[in-house]
C-alpha cells in the first residue's frame, strides 16, 4: 500500500465503515498557520513561522457521549509528528480544560498543544468547549485586538494570519462556544508526574518531543457531547507543529442505552470493543471492493490498483468431481462426491461420472482398530486412497496400482482419535467416491 506522508492542510474527515459504530468520523480541522509576527514572541517560547495548528474532532452518533481517551496493554495511544510539537511555556497546559479564558489572550498561548474531552476553559461563569470554526457564530476572544502582542508588543496583536488554507481567521471565529451540560469527574494518568507535577510529554513545555506513545495513559470525565447535538463533534486534541501528524486513538463512548463501549484504532472486533479505523490517521488505504481478494473492511480509502484478483467461488478440493482449478475462494458446500453431494443430483453436477462410478464398502462402521475397505468397479490402472478428518487433515494417502477391478484393504486406525472421518477414493480416469465412518 502507498504510504501517505504529506498532510494536505485542509479540512479533512474520514468516515468509519463499521455499520454498528457510534463513531461516525474523525475530523482534522486546519485551525491556524503561524506567521512572522507570531514568531517574534519569546515569552511563550519560539513558534516557528509556518507552524500549523490542527484540531482533532471525533464525530459521534447523536446522543452519544465521549467519556475517555486511553491506551492499554493491547492498544497504545499514539500521537506523532515529523517535527517537534509546540508548547507554550507561559500559560500552556497539558489539558484544554485547565485554561483560564483570560490567558488565551496572551502571546501564543492559544496555539498550545494539548488534549481534552471537548472542554477548552476552566469551569467558571462561562465554560467553553471546542466547535468547528465554520459552526462558531459567537465571534472570537482570540487574536488581533484581543491579543497582547507578545514579548515584542506587536501593534494589533498576534494570531492575525488569514491564510486561506485555514479557512475562517481566528479573529473572526475562535472555535469555542458554551455548553449547558459541563462534564465532571475528570481524571488522568500517564501525562503529569504525580510527585513533581511536571509534564515531560509532548503536551508539556519541559521537554520538546515528536511523539507520545503509551499503553497506560488516559484522560476521562463523566461524559460529554459536542456543542451542536445533531453533528455531535467532540474536540479531543489541539496539535501545533511544522511536521506531518499521525495518531491512533482509543476511546470509550457512552451510547444511547447508557452502556460504555470501547472503540479502538486497530485490531479486531471483540465482545467488549469495536475497531473503528477512522481513529487512525493517516487512514489505511487499499482495496474497498469486496469482489476482490485484496478487499479489507479496515480500509477507509480506495487505493488505485489495489484491487487485483477477482474472487472466483468454487470447489477447491481436487478430490471432488466438480473441482474448479480456477477458483480462489473455496465454498466447501459446493463440492460433490459420489454418495455425498448435499442432496443434489450428482449426475447433473458431475455428468462425466456416468458409467464409471466406483463402488466402495467400509466395515465395521463405527470402527475401533481395523477398517476394511472393499473397492469395486475400478476401470483404471491406478487408484488413490486417502483418509481425512472433518477438517481436511489427511492421515492416509495411498496409491494402489493393482491390475484388478476389485481391491480389498484393511487399514489400522487404532492411532486415530475418536471422531468422524472420510475415506476418499479417486481413480486417474476421474471416478470418485467418498464415504464417512466413525472412529470409536
Describe the structure in your own words.
- With 440 residues, the protein is mostly beta strands.
- It folds into 3 domains: 12-297, no CATH class; 312-354, no CATH class; 355-439, Immunoglobulin-like.
- Helix content is 1%, strand content 32%.
- The chain is built from 1 helix and 28 strands.
- The chain has one helix spanning 346-349; strands at 12-15, 23-33, 52-60, 65-70, 77-81, 114-115, 128-130, 176-178, 187-189, 211-214, 218-224, 233-241, 245-248, 250-254, 260-264, 273-275, 280-281, 285-286, 301-302, 313-314, 329-330, 359-363, 370-376, 383-389, 394-400, 407-412, 419-427, 432-439.
- Strands 9-11-4-14-15-16 form a 6-stranded mixed beta sheet, with no helix packed on it.
- It is elongated, with a radius of gyration of 33 Å.
- The protein starts with 11 loop residues before the first strand and ends with a strand.
- Mean pLDDT is 89; it is low at 1-6.
Amino acid at each position: 500500500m502507498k504510504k501517505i506522508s504529506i498532510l494536505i492542510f485542509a479540512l479533512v474527515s474520514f468516515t468509519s465503515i463499521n455499520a454498528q459504530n457510534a463513531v461516525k468520523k474523525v475530523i482534522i480541522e486546519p485551525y491556524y498557520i503561524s506567521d512572522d509576527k507570531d514568531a517574534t514572541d519569546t515569552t511563550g517560547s519560539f513558534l516557528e513561522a509556518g507552524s500549523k495548528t490542527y484540531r482533532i474532532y471525533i464525530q459521534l452518533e447523536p446522543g452519544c457521549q465521549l467519556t475517555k481517551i486511553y491506551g492499554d496493554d493491547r492498544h497504545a495511544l499514539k500521537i506523532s509528528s515529523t517535527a517537534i510539537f509546540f508548547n507554550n511555556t507561559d500559560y500552556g497546559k497539558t489539558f484544554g480544560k485547565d485554561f483560564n479564558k483570560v490567558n488565551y489572550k496572551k502571546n501564543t498561548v492559544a496555539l498550545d498543544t494539548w488534549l481534552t474531552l471537548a472542554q477548552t476553559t476552566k469551569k467558571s461563569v462561562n465554560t467553553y468547549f471546542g466547535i468547528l470554526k465554520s459552526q462558531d457564530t459567537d465571534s472570537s476572544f482570540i487574536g488581533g485586538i484581543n491579543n497582547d502582542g507578545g514579548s515584542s508588543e506587536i501593534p494589533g496583536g498576534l494570531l492575525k494570519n488569514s491564510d486561506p488554507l485555514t479557512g475562517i481567521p481566528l479573529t473572526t471565529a475562535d472555535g469555542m462556544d458554551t455548553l449547558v451540560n459541563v462534564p465532571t469527574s475528570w481524571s488522568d494518568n500517564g501525562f503529569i508526574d504525580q510527585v513533581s507535577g511536571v509534564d515531560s510529554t509532548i503536551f508539556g513545555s519541559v521537554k520538546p518531543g515528536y511523539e507520545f506513545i503509551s499503553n497506560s495513559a488516559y484522560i476521562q470525565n463523566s461524559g460529554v457531547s459536542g456543542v451542536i447535538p445533531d453533528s455531535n463533534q467532540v474536540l479531543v486534541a489541539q496539535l501545533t507543529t511544522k511536521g506531518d501528524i499521525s495518531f491512533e486513538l482509543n476511546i470509550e463512548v457512552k451510547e444511547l442505552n447508557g452502556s460504555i463501549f470501547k472503540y479502538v484504532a486497530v485490531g479486531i472486533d471483540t465482545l467488549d470493543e469495536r475497531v473503528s479505523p477512522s481513529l487512525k490517521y493517516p487512514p489505511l488505504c487499499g482495496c474497498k471492493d469486496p469482489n476482490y481478494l485484496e478487499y479489507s473492511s479496515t480500509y477507509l480509502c480506495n487505493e488505485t490498483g489495489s484491487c487485483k484478483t477477482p474472487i472466483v467461488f468454487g470447489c477447491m478440493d481436487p478430490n471432488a468431481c466438480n473441482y474448479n482449478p480456477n477458483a480462489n475462494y473455496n465454498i466447501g458446500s459446493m463440492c460433490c462426491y459420489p454418495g455425498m453431494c448435499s442432496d443434489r443430483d450428482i449426475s447433473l453436477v458431475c455428468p462425466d461420472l456416468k458409467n464409471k462410478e466406483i463402488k466402495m464398502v467400509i466395515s465395521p462402521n463405527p470402527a475401533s482398530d481395523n477398517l476394511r475397505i472393499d473397492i469395486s468397479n475400478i476401470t483404471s490402472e491406478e487408484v488413490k486412497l486417502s483418509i481425512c478428518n472433518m477438517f481436511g487433515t489427511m492421515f492416509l494417502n495411498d496409491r494402489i496400482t493393482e491390475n484388478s477391478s476389485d481391491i480389498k484393504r484393511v487399514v489400522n486406525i487404532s492411532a486415530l482419535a475418536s471422531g468422524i472421518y472420510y475415506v476418499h477414493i479417486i481413480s486417474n480416469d476421474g471416478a470418485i467416491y467418498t464415504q464417512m465412518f466413525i472412529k470409536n
